[in-house]
Structure to design on (60 residues):
């Protein structure tokens, strides 16, 4: 929450308009969430492969 408020504060200090600030924040958050979705998806695939192959039981 504080990051969002800080983003608006910095945008205001830089002279950005409200619409420009919202677009900049939206693109930044979208990029971060897109990266996290890829990491979570690949981790899920790897976990399922380990379960099916029996590697998860060996590690545990």
């Amino acid at each position: 929450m504080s990051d969002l408020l800080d983003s608006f504060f910095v945008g205001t200090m830089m002279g950005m308009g409200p619409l420009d600030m919202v677009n900049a924040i939206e693109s930044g958050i979208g990029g971060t969430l897109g990266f996290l979705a890829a990491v979570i998806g690949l981790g899920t695939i790897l976990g399922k492969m380990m379960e099916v192959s029996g590697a998860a039981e060996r590690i545990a």
Notes: The first helix runs from residue 2 to 13. Residues 3 and 18 are 16 Å apart (CA to CA). Helices lie at 2-13, 18-53, 55-59.
